[in-house]
Amino acid sequence: MAWRKCYKDALPFSAMVATECINVGLNILYKASTLKGLGFYVFILYSSAIGTLVLLPLAFIFRGTAGLPTIKWPLINRILLLVLIAFIAQLCGYKGIEYSSPTLASAISNLSPAFTYILAVIFRMENLALRSSITQAKIIGTLLSISGAFIVLFYKGPAIISPSQSPSLSLHSPRGTSETNWVLGGLLLAIENLLFSGWRIVQTQVMKIYPAEIVVVFLYALCGTIISAPVCLMAEGNLRAWTLRPDVALVTIIYSGFFGSSIGVVLAWVLHLKGPVYVSIFKPLSIIIAAAMGVIFLGDALYLGSIIGAIILSIGFYAVIWAKHKEELSLGSSSDDKTPLLNSHKFEVKVHLRRAKDLG
Prior knowledge:
By secondary structure, the chain is mainly alpha-helical. The protein has helices at 2-34, 40-65, 73-99, 102-108, 112-122, 133-154, 179-209, 213-235, 248-274, 276-280, 285-298, 304-359; strands at 159-161, 302-303. The protein has one domain (11-321). A two-stranded antiparallel sheet has the order 1-2. The longest helix has 56 residues, at 304-359. Residues 170-176 and 336-360 have low confidence and may be disordered.
């Protein structure tokens, strides 16, 4: 019983916290790499190829020992849809980080629970009972998340922590970040989170069709590499851009390929176990991590608008968490209430069978 509770609650929680830390670290490294000249298309192709190679042996081992069903076209069709959504989302996300900062990326990512809940309602994965306090908390939390994101996006405010003149990585952009770039970056990051919310919905459906996380993520990485290769090679025509040197760009690509594939497996497992809304509600944890790492390593400024918006976003986040917790408790109590009735019915059947046997 203790192991089952740990598997269903403690492990997914710990996995999602670790995932957010890894994601923020990747955003920091990517921002640093772009300031050194790493291109988006080079990053995507190399990191996808490394991720595919990492997952290749694991997928064959797992596929051979799990007795899984045959891979059919409906599965491949949905995986190709996942690849398309993820490629466009990554393009928007990483371009948004280039125009703004990893701290803004983490703040805007708090729109993810709102977007995911709205899409889950549309696709009937979440119940919408307007008179229920649980539904009302989810709606209020969603609206607060969107409001907080707008504050972060359109109100920069004074700098609470000024940019460092000598950041740890010495990679602060000499051009700075203009207001126009800040807003454009925020809009691209919002589009990224909307697309990834839809991605989680599709991924949840994929896991119902083929409940094998490692195999699904490998197929996703393989298809992503095959599809992105010609696109990236045509988009980045400068051959010198494809030459990697032992610097922060190479570290970023290896980090993304290795940990990105690991995150993919973890997310697939948690989505299969807990659903898309549970995965999305961990996004606010990235704000504090990104703000601290951005100030320390990149010399980014921390603005008042980001703090105010993050607070409002966090309130909305915890409103959704409270609603999900209450929903799970109510579902658990309803199942417990049904169990004694079922057991008593079985007991009455046994009694009647015993009496019939005695009479016979």
